[in-house]
Each structure stands twice: as C-alpha cells, then as structure tokens.
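User: I'm writing a short methods note and want a consistent example. For Amidohydrolase, I'll paste the sequence; you return only the structure tokens, no commentary, since I'll be parsing the reply automatically.
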Amino acid sequence: MSEIVAWAEAIQEQLVRWRRHLHQYPECSFEEKETAAFVANVLSEIPGIKVTRNVGGYGVVGKLERGGGRTIALRADMDALPIIEAAEVTYASKHRGVMHACGHDAHTAILLGAATLLSRSFHEDSDLNGTVLFLFQPAEESMDSEGKTGAVHLIEHGVLQDVEMAFALHVCPWHKKDTIQLHSGPSMGSIDVFKGTISGTGGHGAYPHLGNDPFWLLSQVLPALYALTARRISPLEEAVVSVGKISGGEANNVIPSEVQIEGTIRCYDETVRHLLKRDVAQAFDIAKVFGGRSQCLLTGGEPALMNHEKAVRLIQVVAAELYPQHSIVNEPYGLGSEDFAHIAKETTAALFFLGCQPESGQYDLHTDTFQIDESCLSKGTSIMAATAIAALKEKEEESSCH
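Assistant:
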C-alpha cells in the first residue's frame, strides 16, 4: 500500500497522455469503436492481463488473476456527449459536435492506470491472490431502443457472475483535488423520462377564441408538474421534476394544433418514484379538462445508486491511508443519475466522487467548457488500485480467521 501513491505519481505523465488522447477523439454512446480499440491495445501491453473485446457492444474487459480468492470489478465509462467543445486547449476534441464533457476520458485513463499498478502489485506481492476485472463500459450516457444502457448490456453478458465487490469513481468539479466525496445508501437519483403531447385545434393568432390553443393548455399543465414535488411528495424526500424541452409552432401568427414537452423525474426512493410517474401522467390530463387532448409516454432509466456501506467503508479507509491530509466529504452526490446503479443492484458496490476542480475555477459537468485538474488522475488511479488490493486482502484475512 505504501508504494501505490509513488507508483501512481510515476505514471502521471502517461495518465495525462491517455486522457488527452481520449479527449481529442471522443465518441458518443454506442459508437465507441475506436475508443474501445485504444483501450484494448493499451490493456494488451500490460503484463498478466487477458483482454476480451466487444463485450455487450463495444465494452472491453481486462482480467488479472492468480490463485483462488474473490473477484473484484473496477469500472470506467468511455462514452462522450453530443456537445461542441468551447474550451481553448491544445487537446480539444477533433470530432466536432462530440466532447468528453463528463470526465469519462479521465475515468478511462484512471482505470488503465489502476490496471498498470495492479499488474505490478500482482508481480511483486506473491501473497496477493484473486481476480480483478477491469470493466471499460460503453454507453453510460444514453439508452438504446430497448431502454438499456451499457451497464445493463455488460450485466446481461455475464461479467458480474463471480464478482463479489465492484468499485467506480466519477470526477467531481465542485471539489478540489484534495477532496473526495463518499456516501452510503442512496447517493444518486433514479431517472425516468417523460415525453408528452398536448393537442388543441390551433388557428389564427388574431382569433384565439375560435380554437383551442395548446400553448394555453400547456400553461395549465406546467404549474401542476412543478408543484408535484412540493405538494404531492413529503418535504423529507429528495425528488425533482424538471422540464427540459418544449417545442411547437412554425410561425409567429399561427397557433399550432399541438405542442410537445419533455422532461425528467428524479428521486432516491422507489415508492416516491412510482408516485411521481403516476402524477406526471395525471398532470397531462389537465389539458382534457379544458377540451384538449394529451398523451404522456414514460421511459424508465437508471435506478437510484445505492452505495453499499461495506464498500464505502473500504474506500474510506484506503483513501485516508493513502492521502491522510485530504478531506473526505460524507454527503449524497445529488439527483444526477449514473448507470453504475445497475451494477450496485447486483453486487456489493460503491462509487465515489473524486475532486477535480482546476485552480482557475469550476467547470461544470455537461458544459462545453468542462475541464479538470489533471493531477486528480494519479490520485484516482492509486485509490482504485489500492481499494482492489484491500478488497482482495480482506477476503484472505476472513478466510484465515475461519
């Protein structure tokens, strides 16, 4: 353990090169062909790691094993977002309209670093036994036509069959590099997407009384949607309903016959989730009271991320040992969603947030200027690698006690 930090710092320049290469050549969900090829090629050069390509799509799995013992999984997501990058950096995206605006390039570089460190640990520590799976996952940001993200495809492919514990991280722009954020229990929100249509009759803008204006009908629906979490859900529950898109009409003097509205429902509790989905659908029915028509399609996404207390405690002990001067914030991460939640439903697992805020200021996730303090790369690498070692050693200690 005492050598892990030094080993990670020794490969910091390599971590930066990997991250910047990935940043320059981003690929959106379900399109990560070249990213996967890059990852597989790097993994194949690391001693002792067996590489499997095209797992659940463009997923890549590296396997490092020796002897018996438990199986641990470390996961990183690889996909980018459909955003035009505005950051003026030498390694800006070369794929216009696609950008690593959520730090998945950093996650991938960190996991490649962790694989490098663990390969060395297995070579130098003859008492280290067990299996570590390095899961490089596609499509965290989007679902396919069947409503499945990359994590679901990996699970259906059987990658978690023997996994006893799984760990992941996410770079965090609201914390500086000397801080990590941890939390047990519900830590990120579930997500459901609604797409609704409100229909009237439309007409001339000068004579709205002769038709049934769908925008006016929408104005009755919107307050109901925004009131749901304030008056239909307990104030003690965390939940939010947000409208992200409204579209309709073609000309400024023509009232259209219909408008479309899209948004999301997020919360921590499954009972609350069920109630909000029901109430959102009912809110659209308000249009019918005023003579309009409405439809509401709900698509289920990730469940809430439930971090297991045992896995969180292991990360906390490791982080405190490696970086005793760093701060550990014990708070939920918010209502953003993360498809690692699917993995956390299958095995003992935890995802932590790694501070990455540059000295120049905060650059938020999913924005066209998002950047990180790259010194976080070696820290994430050492914590991930050391956590895997601690998990393997913990199993050995449990066995020896029996």
